[in-house]
Amino acid sequence: MSREKIFTALLMLYALLLSGTFLAGGAVILMILFFLFDKKENLKRKLRKAFGRGLVWWFWAYYLLHVLGYFVSTDKTAASVHLEHKLAFLLLPPVILGEYVSPGNIKKVLLFFKNAVILVLVASLTYHFIRYGKGLGEFTHFGFRDLSISYFYFSVFILFSVFILDTFKPKYFVLQKITLLFFLILLANRTAILFAVFYFVFRNKGYRYFFNKYALGSIILFGILLFATDNLLMRKIKVFARTTDFDMEIIRTKNRISVTHNTLEQRIYIWSLAGALIKERFWTGYGTGDFQQALNRQYELNNFKAARLHRFNTHNQFLQEFLKFGIGGFLFFVLWIGYLLKISMGKPVLSLVVWLIVWGSLFESYWLRHHGILFIAFFIPLLYKYYEQASNHE
Predict the structure, then answer these.
(1) Of the candidates 77, 88, 110, 353, which lies 20 to 30 Å from 302 by C-alpha distance?
(2) Which domain holds residue 218?
């Protein structure tokens, strides 16, 4: 078996493990060992190839920033955990960009990931009915929750799978897309759903679906699902409509009195507290290991009940970088995002993924959690390689 076939199989293994487990790190180890197990001259060539790309250096610089943040942290244990979690930023990009794999095989990996996402969702729904006997509206809280993956991160997987379907249009792609969008509504993450609306209306000329009887029927079914059933998305919308205030003092008072369920208000309050902390250490930040503890102290001092219970992060990656590293780290992160947007121009799926990550980073600390890190470290280099290789094959 050729090296390319073995490497493609390892990429597929990683995609499978990422879509439904916490075990993708095992596939990372296998890919690294495979990458290193080569002739000396080939290894040197692969390393030159990988590090000849600015993308790898940006990933490494971002990791190095966290290493520097380790030394200014007082909680070295927490800092070490963050460094360990972010090792994928250090290891995956050079391996993916250095080892040869053809555009055709990368396409197979992307389609395989899409299939794995659908399989995991269908299996989870089946498990949900059999194990718990609950309705569709409880899917996120029961059958899906047992995966131990935040539904926001899996919503990103779903949207990414939709991008793959629209790009490559495999057999039965319309049915697969309808299935994925059905589950996106069940997971009820408003951040992901808003991006989906933007994608279909503006990017994908969604108005065309109203002239297709199958698509129009699907839209009507989605409407019935939303408005005629007890589903999590409608419950969230009702909570938002009935309870949202934008007066900061009212938000503080409500969150001091009880554990509220209005996540927008919670985010506004968290961002306010994070902003106060940033003012205190504008230049240096709190370090890789201490930023969460600083937030937790603010939650205690202000008796922010929901945050004290759940130990919320900033729910905004830009604020989190500012909180960790001060103004320098924040500006680096903005430049890093700008670089990703620049290299994604003219590369449709990569561009959509980068914009999705940027959008998600406004409402979630996407670069903090396990599945966010592994998604970014794997698919951004892989998609970049796909378009680079496709261009060379023209």
Answers:
(1) 77
(2) 3-37+101-237+344-393
